[in-house]
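ARCHIVE CARD
CATEGORY: sequence design from structure
SOURCE FIELD: tokenized fold
FIELD CONTENT:
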């Protein structure tokens, strides 16, 4: 039986945890040969191959992308997923933190894509998927810096899609709502009342629960030849948070 991604080669940044790890696993299950680029890829198990790099550092990205392309025999699919968070209003985050978050979340995509482009240009099924966020399209409290970074990812996705459409490289992004990953686990642990904070996050999503990392499977779909007609799109995986206006289940 052939699988949709048989013989395709995929590189996932931030692929050692959460959404990236779930995506790397799913791409592999669908037949792709998968490599992960991460600050710490030690959680990644064969047949996925891990490469250490900081998307904030151009030299380490160039090295890891070249090593991954060598190991895989090319790159057809690039998932730009590595990202970091920040809490606060515009009054709260120092300039250094603004520079670091924008550098990782936005320029990190630029560095990785720049290094992968020659390989993507050589592919017959080239696709890039960026992990964006609901924070790009909805105003969330205490997320000024993070939202600015993801707004930039959304615009960058559209610009990249336009630039590379004639080269046969599709570029899309997914906008997850709140996803139950180690990242959100760390946020909950840091809250004064983690159970109340989890209940508040659940309540913010019309489905009444957090999205699971495996449910951000839209990344694998957008990366696949099935989505050959789709480029320059942002696909929400947010439990209805962006589009629905429902009452809490208890008040219907
Ligand atoms: P996570 O913390 O579980 O995983 C992120 C991975 O990225 C980690 O393995 C980490 O080591 C890696 N990473 C971080 N900085 C890096 C760097 N400079 N270079 C290389 N690797 C780096 O987080 P997650 O929740 O799976 O988030 C993944 C992506 O999804 C991020 O871009 C995040 O903004 C986005 N996102 C998450 C949520 C959510 O609720 N969890 C919602 C919307 C969007």
């Amino acid at each position: 039986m052939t699988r949709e991604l048989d013989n395709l080669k995929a590189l996932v940044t931030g692929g050692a945890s959460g959404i990236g790890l779930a995506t790397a696993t799913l791409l592999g299950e669908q037949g792709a040969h998968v490599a992960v680029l991460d600050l710490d890829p030690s959680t990644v198990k064969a047949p996925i191959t891990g490469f250490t790099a900081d998307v904030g550092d151009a030299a380490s990205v160039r090295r890891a992308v070249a090593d991954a392309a060598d190991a895989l025999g090319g790159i057809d699919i690039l998932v730009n997923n590595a990202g970091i968070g920040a809490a606060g209003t515009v009054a709260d985050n120092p300039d250094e933190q603004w520079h670091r978050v924008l550098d990782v979340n936005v320029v990190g995509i630029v560095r990785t894509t720049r290094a992968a482009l020659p390989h993507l240009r050589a592919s017959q099924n080239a696709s890039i998927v960026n992990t964006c966020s609901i924070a790009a399209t909805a105003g969330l409290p205490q997320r000024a810096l993070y939202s600015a970074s993801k707004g930039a990812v959304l615009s960058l996705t559209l610009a990249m899609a336009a630039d590379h459409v004639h080269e046969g490289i599709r570029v899309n992004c997914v906008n997850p709502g709140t996803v139950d990953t180690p990242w959100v686990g760390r946020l909950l642990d840091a809250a004064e009342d983690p159970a109340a904070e989890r209940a508040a996050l659940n309540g913010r999503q019309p489905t009444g629960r957090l999205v699971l990392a495996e449910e951000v499977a839209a990344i694998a779909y957008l990366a696949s030849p099935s989505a050959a007609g789709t480029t320059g799109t942002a696909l929400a995986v947010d439990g209805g948070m962006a589009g629905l206006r429902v009452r809490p289940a208890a008040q219907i």
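CARD ANNOTATION: The first strand starts at residue 9 and ends at 13. Residues 13-14, 16-20, 38-40, 53-56, 81-84, 104, 131, 133, 176, 178-179, 181-184 surround nicotinamide-adenine-dinucleotide (CB under 6 Å).
SHELF: design records, drawer C
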